[in-house]
Amino acid sequence: MRIRKYDFDFSRRAFLEKTARGVGGLGVLAPMWSVAASTGDISKAYPDELMSIDMFTKGKIKTGDYVDANNVDIVKDLLDPIQYKNIKEQGRRIKIVPTTRDLTHMYNADHLEATLRNRGRARWAADGNLTTDTNENWLGGVPFIEPKDGKEALANITMSWGRHNFSLYTIPDVDLKPDGTIGYEYEFMWAELQCQARSDGKVFQDRKDLLRLQSVWFTRPNDTKGSSFLSIWYYDQRKFPDLHGYFPAFKRVRQFPTNQRFEPLVPGITFFLSDAWSSGDPMLTWGDFQLIGRQPHLAPVSENWQGDQPNWDKKVHGGGKGITFYETNFQLVPECVVIETKPTGYPRAPVGKKKVWIDTRNNMYNSSITFDRRGEVWKSFETGSGRQVKGDNVHKNADGTPAWSWDYCHVHDIQSNRMSRFYHAKASPTGYKSEYDPSYDFYNAYLTTGALNRLGK
Hints:
Elements: H1 10-21, H2 32-36, H3 53-56, E1 66-67, H4 81-89, E2 94-96, H5 109-117, E3 122-124, E4 130-132, H6 150-158, E5 166-176, E6 182-194, E7 210-220, E8 228-234, E9 242-247, E10 252-256, E11 287-299, E12 316-317, E13 325-326, E14 328-342, E15 351-359, E16 364-372, E17 377-387, E18 389-390, E19 393-394, E20 404-413, E21 418-423, E22 435-436, H7 442-446, H8 449-456
Parallel strand pairs: 2-14
Antiparallel strand pairs: 1-2, 3-4, 5-6, 5-21, 5-22, 6-7, 7-8, 8-9, 9-10, 11-14, 12-13, 14-15, 15-16, 16-17, 17-20, 18-19, 20-21
InterPro entries: DUF1329, TAT_signal
Pfam family, one: DUF1329
């Protein structure tokens, strides 16, 4: 039997003290990364109450239980305000699964290796961009594993979204009207290529001026099929990406203004380019970064990948017609940082600020909320993620290790009650499949203006 040495509010007081002092170290009882160094297990860094929802709620909610309208008030402070409203008023439910204790299950193996290899080397250059102790561009992995402020926390996401050198995702999307009926359905492909900040430490084609290339193209329905976009991101986070687009009606590639990042790409969808990975804009076009809190959190960071289903399909429930929300698994996150930031580079942005919850175990966001210019809650961007392992079903990286990736997104405009939900599927009927770091020439296949023409046709 383990004797309790700390009262129930010990963790809360410890987090408040860290936030007030601006202390960056992770863990409550011991430094998290030091504890995990030998086995990857973080258990001894936190008291029992932060490693078990059963103990945190004093048995009112247990692992395996569902949180719904009847009991959500018990954990209201562990959810973002839109998640709470979804559960309390709109028929959503979430299932509680065990807290992940093994850090290696929250990373791709090569990304974790790069994180540890480059630990402590991140610096800020005079122009505000990320550099290293030898004045190089970032070499790969999470730059600030113990973020001390909001800028460091956001850099951990911005520098490498999907945490693969290259990734291709098949994405079925459903966009719901305020009454819960389907307004639009799309399928699109999303490709990401890291030019720098790669896990292998290399620079793609010696393009030291670029951070990433990212493209999206729609494969259905027929009236949007062929619409495609290419974003060319500069390493200098003060610069807007170059945005190229192809529409079948025009039959040519056009360049678009890239400071209009708060608009839907296609009708009906609530997802904006700015929302991507909760860091869809160059980091230095936002500012006033603040780390406003440290706390436990409920988040969908494991056991959401449906690898035993034909196309990794997901079940739905809730909302006006019973089809608004995915069935999702949440766990108690022992420690997350909460940051706020404002879009300083966009004078006409409809967003006033963004609030982001970031899991300190892998420094990846779990959810974010945007507020309008009046300060009212506007839109959520909730992303499930985790290891792509379910029983005997395993989606692997190119090196044969189990993949970590995002799993689904809920993008809920709470003011209009319009909802977009989409998930990471296995393959498209058009022949594309989700994959990481394949051996073929994916750059020329998906990430050039010539590719946009070809994909559009």
